[in-house]
């Protein structure tokens, strides 16, 4: 209980800002709370809102090593937790057989030997637990694994231990910060959710997005950043297949700088909108909505 | 600070009595559960642990801390927030009833500005109490000013004033919050205010506004107006809680979760929520159905492949190989009643079915009232399902005689026109409340349908207890279907689609 990583919520916010991650009250609060309670954070939200970046930034700010487990369909414990290095085990057995003909006493010794640390290949989860130095564990896109595989994570998330039948339970030397991200393509199991603090990261509001643009895009003027943020917000208000993400906003802002644009007018917007939107139907819709002067929102609302 | 309601005990909590806050939290959790949020015991304990680290005075942080431990689904956030506002509405300096708070400072500042603008005599606005004397015109001016500057404190002040002035709240009157909200908003005429603001923006700009600029201005003001509405709502809530106490208000103000909203009785605001909720839902369903198809099934033994692989085991077929499973994808025919009350239900179902059409070999949609029309073409090559669904309502030719539901006639026409397309691969979904306006049922059509199709399901948006009452003839059709499902909300609809194959 003795040493916490962070002093207070504003402190978290400040140090995140130092590593160029602009958080809001909710994000900073939960990072702080996760540290105090020693609980993992489940980060959910649309693609491209900085979920993975959050974990990276927290690692950078705490001066910790980032261990990343990318999830995919078909992930199993030999990829996530640990694996026995059976080739090495085989060699060990053969080496033993050469020295003297193996009696039964020897066998006990040998079997104890080949199931020891030396023959264990650590995978990200076990590595995070056994690390001596400060680490941040990122379990990325956890919604991609099957529901059954989720169970693999439960032990480590609630107790920070890994049980290996041959070795016993390995306990964490220190409680790492754990981030799980999810794009919400499926409902995660109750068991998993219960063990985590939940953070929903949405698209940033106008002010924050503007700040982000100002921080991340050098040489941009305040007024252009403001315009960019406002146009992006208006586009996100439409019902689109894929709303522009923060990274797309940044790409767009950079493009405008490269083109030497000082002021976004309809013409520029039309020519560069492909950077923000990736579906033709979305582009058509956005252009129609944005250029239509007396866009009747009321008709929309009644639909 | 005379507050009659139970939350006055909160002062004890402030003095450091730990169990007082725990008690408050316990009540809070109970209400969350009553509102339908799944709060487990562990989460409950986590929340109690969490509040030890976050001071209650920092209201926003406190809210996020509770939400992080208790709300694990973003669509539940609104319901959570409502309960939170009710339970902790006395917390935080800006919510104090005390007129000497910094709130009235903002108000005074605003008044000063106004008076500065007009050069009027500044007598009437001496202190917080004198604010009562504000006329509707003054409020309207304040409103414009606050919206133009977009200042949170001023908006709150305006919200408070207008509720005081227009809502006409009386202690003990058993009316819900929406009534007061409606009254206040009617007086404020926010649509008119928006137009005025836009006019002003146009005048102030040196060049005429381009379409894009106009749109951006409008969006900005709309966001601010939305904020103002929220302020008004929370002000009304605060007053109601002060009047009637936390428990009573928590019950009346309870908001259903999006998946529990009744299709037939959804308010406009709830409709918007439903539309938002349906996108993630369809994505999830599509993933789930695709996975179900891929996993958990094995094709028949692939003899050739097994023999080939046996070579590596010295000719022993140790590893049996199976053919790639190719489960048949069903064809879906949706036949939907789109008359008045059930229209929104049909819309959502069509939306859902089309959003996951990749899981079916073919989807065809028919809509009817007393005539029937195929609307498949509206969905073809369209990327925006929401728009296609919208067009169904305007373009389909579904009225035969009088535009009152006639299931019998619609089914008959459907059968004679499209019946030949129904085959053993077809699953037919019939959507409607089976309220036939006492016409002939022609249930033989459904019987024939069941005979020829793979499955016939009926989805009824009415509560089960209403079936077969009045002009509902659900029972007459039910016998010929493979199942009638009550589908009043997204939760039930989702459950049904899951079993569909």
Count of DSSP strands of chain B: 6
Share of residues in strands of chain A: 5-15%
Q: How many individual helices of chain A?
A: 15
Give the overall form of chain B: globular
Q: Mind describing the biggest β-sheet of chain A?
A: 5 strands, parallel
Which structural category do the helix and sheet elements of chain B fall into?
A: alpha/beta
Low-confidence stretches of chain A: 293-303
DSSP helical segment count of chain B: 21
Average pLDDT figure of chain A: 84
The percentage helix of chain A is 40-55%
Radius of gyration of chain A: 25 Å
Structure write-up:
The complex is a heterodimer of chains A (303) and B (501). With 303 residues, chain A is an alpha/beta fold. Chain A has helices at residues 9-18, 25-37, 51-62, 77-80, 86-99, 104-114, 124-130, 147-159, 190-194, 206-216, 222-237, 246-258, 266-272, 280-291, 297-302, and strands spanning 41-44, 65-70, 82-84, 120-122, 135-140, 161-164, 168-171, 177-182, 197-200. The longest helix of chain A has 16 residues, at 222-237. In chain B, 54% of the residues lie in helices and 6% in strands. Chain B has a 6-stranded mixed β-sheet, sandwiched between helices. In chain B, α19 (444-452) links the parallel β4 (426-431) and β5. In chain B, α3 (41-53) packs antiparallel against α4 (59-70) and α10 (190-204) packs antiparallel against α11. Chain B is globular and about 90 Å long. Residues 1-16, 91-102 and 117-131 of chain B have low confidence and may be disordered. The chains are: A alpha/beta (303), B alpha/beta (501). At the A-B interface, α2, α9, β9, α11 and α14 of A face α3, α4, α11 and α13 of B.
